[in-house]
């Protein structure tokens, strides 16, 4: 039932230890055995290696910390955390820093290692993405400790000697960077108890086995992210244009690697952050995978995350799941939404794998994904096996179905379903924002249409328009202009325009909908009856009572004949006819219809249904208009109390009931209560609905009217001027509410003794009202009487 506006006036482990060989002959010896020749390679250590490793000392300043320690911003708290873990009163041997690829783990570790040169020796960095890489890094450490061994001893023996050295010395720091499997690092972690080991890894699980202190690294705060972008983009270029820096780091989710990548690109190409944003929007696949000259080509965000997903290739569901999650908002996603994707054990395994590598964040009930991970995962790239176009499209359609299924048991009108709507609204909005309109299906249109209805019901018609408009386009493109689903979405779009006060767009859409429904469905189809009711209601809102009243009478008669007297469409038609009679000044016809509508709604829908609450509010308002305050005030109080209890204090129906109770107090002469309630209603509507919502304009008008009635022209006149200016801007100069606001301002001028301004404004308003509404419209008659009273 539509709500009329209020009265505008109112791994393996190798053995450890050093290698001992007898007979220090260097090279190969050939051993002959019966039956065949066999060559046995024996690598023998030179004489210097016969020293026990505990007698080998590290040269002062032995370190190999990599170059990226030079680009560093913030992270004071994280550095302090590493200091407490590795150097504090109760230090641990192992600290593990984990987080999403590109989050800055290696940079943090490098900064810590670089600043600890005087505390630890050696400070040794090992690329640890595989067991062979760790072995090579250990061999390099042995060569650093004893350079003469570098060309003489096989790599594996060197690695074993380094492990032996680490096991019997203290005061060293070993960094194992980018460990992909804790088992690869086990030979080191199991043997090194005297020094300190700092591990970085995308993997967040398994480090407890080493007794590690674990630190999860998060993205940079926005201010530090901007500082990092600035440092890279303006290097030797202090004049660089940084317009759009905050927007760019926000789009990149404050992820350090992405910011460095963008900053280097800006520096190389002499671009501003805003220009980079345009490139990112137009060519995302290229930009996510492109590095500036001089940067490591393999260290782009797309390639780093591709390697992570390669580790999960044994579970194809993990990649698909990430592509589905990519279409949602970068905030908490209910895990229950994902239940239809797979059986619980498979789903949990996939989620756990993604979480272990920090591609997602899990808690007991929700999943969260970094916005840039999402952006890359939903961007097709034929060069990436995890982002094929067909796979991305399949994930989009499943993401849409999951949202639709998650809302299947809810009604946008039922307060019990509102928490679900509010939880999923951000994800529906994100999907609509990121999915190309060309990919929309009827299922997409259905989801968008339902979302628009929820937003309309919550008092956000401007947002609803966007959803309904896209749903209408999708249905028209995929199903045709006369399909019932297209007609429904066209009707809903018209309703959103009407609620926003844009009757110039609403009425033609309603007229098209009705014509299409009559042609395709027939004159007696419920959708046709609803379309006729809605068009008539729009005529009434535009002040065209000459068309509204006859059409509403016909619609009510047809609805009673076809659907029966208690059908919701019939109740809505009766309510709207009653309101049209009231707008025409026929309260004797309006009030019985309102009374019957309320009684039927209470019996059929229940006393707490939103349509019943609306009917109760409308009847109370009609009683007030008739001067029957003995019934108007108590019923208005009940309508407000019921709305607050059922819908909450901020629902548009509640706000309308509060406005109308204030109007009842004003009519009763209780201006103290009226003004207090009007002021509260205006403040709430500005907060909930926004300053330009038609209901907010009504509240502003009503408060000004009450100020004038109280003789407070100092507040009334400025508020009426603002109301008129806002109404002309938002609703247009010919809208009935704008004409009313202009009349009320003229009345205030008259009360203030400014008769010249009052007469001039009233003459213009009367001429416009006669042109738009007609000479016999009640609003026109009021304006004519006001003008005559001044010029007599």
From TrEMBL:
<dbReference type="InterPro" id="IPR011990">
    <property type="entry name" value="TPR-like_helical_dom_sf"/>
</dbReference>
<feature type="domain" description="NB-ARC">
    <location>
        <begin position="94"/>
        <end position="236"/>
    </location>
</feature>
<protein>
    <submittedName>
        <fullName>FxSxx-COOH system tetratricopeptide repeat protein</fullName>
    </submittedName>
</protein>
<feature type="region of interest" description="Disordered">
    <location>
        <begin position="1"/>
        <end position="27"/>
    </location>
</feature>
<dbReference type="InterPro" id="IPR027417">
    <property type="entry name" value="P-loop_NTPase"/>
</dbReference>
<dbReference type="InterPro" id="IPR053137">
    <property type="entry name" value="NLR-like"/>
</dbReference>
<dbReference type="Pfam" id="PF13424">
    <property type="entry name" value="TPR_12"/>
</dbReference>
<dbReference type="InterPro" id="IPR002182">
    <property type="entry name" value="NB-ARC"/>
</dbReference>
<feature type="region of interest" description="Disordered">
    <location>
        <begin position="42"/>
        <end position="62"/>
    </location>
</feature>
<dbReference type="Pfam" id="PF00931">
    <property type="entry name" value="NB-ARC"/>
</dbReference>
<dbReference type="Pfam" id="PF13374">
    <property type="entry name" value="TPR_10"/>
</dbReference>
């Amino acid at each position: 039932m539509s709500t009329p506006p209020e009265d505008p006036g109112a791994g393996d482990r190798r053995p450890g230890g050093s290698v001992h060989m007898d007979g220090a002959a260097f090279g190969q010896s050939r051993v002959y055995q019966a039956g065949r020749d066999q060559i046995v390679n024996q690598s023998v250590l030179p004489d210097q290696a016969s020293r026990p490793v505990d007698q080998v000392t590290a040269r002062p300043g032995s370190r190999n910390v990599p170059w990226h320690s030079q680009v560093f911003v913030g992270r004071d708290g994280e550095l302090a955390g590493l200091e407490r873990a590795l150097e504090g009163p109760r230090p641990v041997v192992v600290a593990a820093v984990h987080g999403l690829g590109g989050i800055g783990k290696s940079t943090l570790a490098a900064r810590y290692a670089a600043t600890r040169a005087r505390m630890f020796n050696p400070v040794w960095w090992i690329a640890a993405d595989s067991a062979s890489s760790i072995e090579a890094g250990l061999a390099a450490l042995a060569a650093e400790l004893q350079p003469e061994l570098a060309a003489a001893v096989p790599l594996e023996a060197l690695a074993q000697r380094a492990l032996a050295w680490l096991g019997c010395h203290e005061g060293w720091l070993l960094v194992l960077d980018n460990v992909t499997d804790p088992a690869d690092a086990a030979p080191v972690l199991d043997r090194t108890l005297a020094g300190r080991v700092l591990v970085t890894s995308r993997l967040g699980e398994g480090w407890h086995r080493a007794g590690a202190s674990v630190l999860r690294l998060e993205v940079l705060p926005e201010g530090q992210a901007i500082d990092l972008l600035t440092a890279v983009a303006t290097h030797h270029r202090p004049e660089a244009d940084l317009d759009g820096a905050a927007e760019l780091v926000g789009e990149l989710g404050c992820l350090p690697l992405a910011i460095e990548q963008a900053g280097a690109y800006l520096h190389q190409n002499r671009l501003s952050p805003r220009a980079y944003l345009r490139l990112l929007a137009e060519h995302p696949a290229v930009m996510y995978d492109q590095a500036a000259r001089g940067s490591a080509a393999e260290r782009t965000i797309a390639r780093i995350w591709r390697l992570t997903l390669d580790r999960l290739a044994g579970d194809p569901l993990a990649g698909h799941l990430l592509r589905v999650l990519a279409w949602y908002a970068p905030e908490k996603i209910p895990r229950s939404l994902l239940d239809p994707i797979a059986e619980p054990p498979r789903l949990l395994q996939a989620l756990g794998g993604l979480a272990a590598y920090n591609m997602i964040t899990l808690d007991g009930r929700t999943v969260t994904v970094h916005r840039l991970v999402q952006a890359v995962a939903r961007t097709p790239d034929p060069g990436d096996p995890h982002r094929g176009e067909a796979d991305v499209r399949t994930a989009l359609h499943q993401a849409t179905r999951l949202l639709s299924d998650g809302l299947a048991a809810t009604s946008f009108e039922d307060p019990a379903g509102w928490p679900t709507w509010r939880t999923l609204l951000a994800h529906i909005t994100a999907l609509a924002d990121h999915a190309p309109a060309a990919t929309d299906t009827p299922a997409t249109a259905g989801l968008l249409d339902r979302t628009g209805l929820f937003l309309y019901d919550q008092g956000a018609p401007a947002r609803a328009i966007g959803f309904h408009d896209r749903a209408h386009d999708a249905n028209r493109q995929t199903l045709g202009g006369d399909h019932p689903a297209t007609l429904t979405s066209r009707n809903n779009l018209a309703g959103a325009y009407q609620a926003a006060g844009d009757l110039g767009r609403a009425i033609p859409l309603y007229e098209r909908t009705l014509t299409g429904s009559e042609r395709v469905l027939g004159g007696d189809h419920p959708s046709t009856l609803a379309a006729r009711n809605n068009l008539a209601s729009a005529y009434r809102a535009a002040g065209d009572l000459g068309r509204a009243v006859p059409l509403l009478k016909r619609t009510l008669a047809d609805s009673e004949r076809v659907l029966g007297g208690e059908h919701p469409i019939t109740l809505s038609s009766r309510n709207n006819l009653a309101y049209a009679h009231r707008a025409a000044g026929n309260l004797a016809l309006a009030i019985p219809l309102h009374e019957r509508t309320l009684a039927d709604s209470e019996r059929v829908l229940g006393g707490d249904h939103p349509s019943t609450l609306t009917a109760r509010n409308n009847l109370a308002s009609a009683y007030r208009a008739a001067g029957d305050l003995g019934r108007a005030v108590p019923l208005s109080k009940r309508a407000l109390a019921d709305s607050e209890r059922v819908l909450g204090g901020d629902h548009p129906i509640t706000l309308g009931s509060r406005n109308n109770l204030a109007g009842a107090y004003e009519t009763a002469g209780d201006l103290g209560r009226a003004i207090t309630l009007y002021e509260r209603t205006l403040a709430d509507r500005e907060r909930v609905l926004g300053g330009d919502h038609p209901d907010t304009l009504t509240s502003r008008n009503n408060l000004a009217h009450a100020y004038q009635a109280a003789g407070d022209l100092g507040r009334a006149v400025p508020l009426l001027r603002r109301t008129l200016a806002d109404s002309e801007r938002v609703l247009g100069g010919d809208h009935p509410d704008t004409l009313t606001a202009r009349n009320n301002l003229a009345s205030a001028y008259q009360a203030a003794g400014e008769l010249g301004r009052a007469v001039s404004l009233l003459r213009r308003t009367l001429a416009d009202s006669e042109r738009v509404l007609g000479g016999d419209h009640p609003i026109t008659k009021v304006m004519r009487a006001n003008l005559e009273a001044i010029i007599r």
